[in-house]
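Build the 3D complex.
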Amino acid sequence: MFKLRKKDFLQVSDLTADEVFHLFELAKDLKNRHNRGELRVPILKGKVLGMVFTKPSTRTRTSFEVAMLQLDGHALNLFAEGTQVSRGETMADTGRTLSRYLDGIMIRTFEQTETEKLAKYSDIPIINGLTDLHHPCQALADFYTIWEKRGSFKDVRLAYFGDGNNVCHSLMQAADLLGAEMLVVTPKGYQPRKEVLAKLKNGHKKITITNNPKISLANVDFIYTDAWVSMGQEGIKKQKKIFRPYQVNGDLLKNAASKALVMHCLPAHRGEEITDEVIDGPNSIVWDQAENRLHLQKALLAALL
Ligand code: CP
Ligand code: NVA
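Done.
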């Protein structure tokens, strides 16, 4: 079993392109075996993954838990409100303690720095299951889905519409690493963060950022969108009307090539960032993306744990 160079997976840029392709090959093998009915592949026999959540989750939680089960390991749900984290025990002390029991931790939380602290003070691999800044497991599964559909990233052009935050940042890092082109279309004030742009390995040569929702989509192969209001931002007064021109709807698809496929990390806010006709339409591949979370999670866990 190949091992990743770094102990932790906190953002896509922790991986090399070679490592990503190794993960994709492993995920493909595990997916094929799963689809042939080989549900248990005992790669992680006896290993235990802790899952810390300070935000809700359906896909991430379920796919990690099922992945551990099907690899013959076990996953523990450590909801933050049920642990001493909720009473102020630091990430450093939590990491030091949990390292004595567990073989790895997947954490979903607000600040990216909390995942970094946990990684610093833990002897075991830490996986970022979403922060305000990154969602690297999502981007891995998404680029795997693109790879399944297209076979390579040569001449692949992905357009992202909406808020330039966590999912967008991770997709940009993946596009940068794997050589796909990306068009990022956000309202003013919601562009990707400068510190993320500054760290793109290839100097974001193939990434274009614009506020123009009417930009030509003629050469775009994949159109991606995400929530206008992310978890934890519910209390912030976001002007949904600012996002309205960036909605992925039938009119927007008319501007794109007829074969352009539509992606969404889910959960979808139907009628906001995406319409029913598009998410339920023939160009939508959102359920393939969700399914692939399981297979990528397995590959990642196998390579890290
Ligand atoms: N896409 C995603 O991470 O979904 P959940 O929030 O349900 O985990
Ligand atoms: N940007 C969204 C992604 C959900 C998977 C959020 O952070 O809520």
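Residues 12-135+291-304 form a domain with the Rossmann fold fold (CATH 3.40.50.1370).
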